[in-house]
Hints:
Elements: E1 3-4, E2 6-8, E3 11-13, E4 18-23, E5 28-34, H1 38-55, H2 60-76, H3 78-89, H4 93-113, E6 120-122, E7 129-137, E8 140-144, H5 152-164, E9 167-171, H6 178-188, E10 197-199, H7 204-213, E11 217-223, H8 226-237, E12 243-246, E13 251-255, H9 261-273, E14 283-289, H10 293-305, H11 325-340, E15 344-347, E16 362-365, E17 382-388, H12 391-399, E18 403-404, E19 406-410, H13 414-423, E20 428-431, E21 446-447, E22 450-451, E23 464-472
Parallel strand pairs: 1-5, 8-9, 8-11, 9-10, 11-12, 13-14, 13-19, 14-17, 16-17, 19-20
Antiparallel strand pairs: 2-3, 4-5, 6-7, 7-23, 12-22, 15-16, 18-21
Amino acid sequence: MKTYPVYLNGNWIVSETSAPVVNPASAEVFANMSTVTAARVAQAIQDAHAAFLDWRQVPGKARGEFLHKVANELNRRREEIARLISLESGKPLSQSLGEIAMSVDHLRWFAEEARRIYGRVIPPHIASRRHWTVRQPVGVVAAMTPWNFPLMLAVRKVAAAIAAGCTVVHKPSLRTPFSAVAFGECLAESQPIKGLFQIVAGEAEMIAGEFLAHPLCRRLSFTGSTATGRKLAERAASHLKPLLLELSGNAPALVFDDCDLSVAVNAVLLSKFRNSGQSCIAVNRIYVQRTIYPGFVQMLTEKVKGLKLASGLEPDAQVGPLIDPPALERALEHIADAVNGGGKLLCGGKRARMPGYFLEPTVISEVPRTSLCMFEETFAPLAAITPFDTEREGVELANDSVYGLAAYVFTQNLSRAMRLADSLSAGIVGINDGVPTNSQSPFGGIKQSGWGRELGAEGIEAFLETKLVSLGLE
């Protein structure tokens, strides 16, 4: 069985210790990932700092040209890497190819942003002074990424940091580390400086501890659960370590009776069941205005019944497995809680009779507003629906959450759309749009869904410092 290497200071190393990686579609180990010690993480940070001293001097144009080369290589290997993503995460191959396409676009976006890092000239307060600012890279960046979009969520951090002039030590999830290795190979193909990008893998708490404690690691960018983000923030406080956090969501969808019903159903279907519901911006709570409630529920249920549940490598697969047994158990707990509270199970609701960690795509209507799935993030193919009456009530329901990553509105009334865009407490609002993300727009949440923004013009900001220069004239 193959053991994949870590990437340290320009060298691919198969370590003495490794961790098994399971294909969630079969529940079988299919390869191993090398793991590292705390000492190796510390050395990786030292090597990254040494590389930073050279990389920061490379002009933005040249940094962008390097990222374009990485994008070209990733695109050239897209079929091979997409298969690897589907093996380790279980997602349908078509969605893995989509993840690669978006990753290539992220690389190209930040390749061009590298040219657009501007300072400014500040009017002096006295005639004998001149003031200006410059934007400079922060230094070594640690990136910790999750398993649900293992390539794309790594690329959006790594590309932004490298474009800014930083160097990166990346820790992928041990559930899905191999796409990170493949991405590292694309970088290594034309990497101009050893130590510019490195991969460490192993026990998350140990690696995070090294990232937070090491004085040469200047930023930590993390995507994952709010619970883990809170722990990182607590530990970072003692070191005054700045964090970029993209955390949990619990996205509401408000479906109004003046919407295009077909558009609303298809958008909710895409948002909820893409990647088996394992997305932080997936629709989690579906509120439908009472006058169209029966029609919406019927149309969505029929479409969900028609989804093909299968291994991601099977032709025409639409919904794959959940990532591991705890994820499946949590989903079944949410289903049982909703049904026991009075919700009506319309389809699915059970573990599928097939190898792996498959949950039948599920629709529950009349879900009580106190159900777990209405307050906790449900990373699963579970559509929980409940009616509402007025716009004001809908907004109150949507905002009744500690999370604020994404929210969705379906209406053809422009005035209502504008009101909802203002009043919903979320970092991202999709109006008649089930996937409101792209490379050129900022991504991030409010409340307990995170700190800072990735992507867009804002995406490079976390990896830059502002320096004031004040010149006294004779």
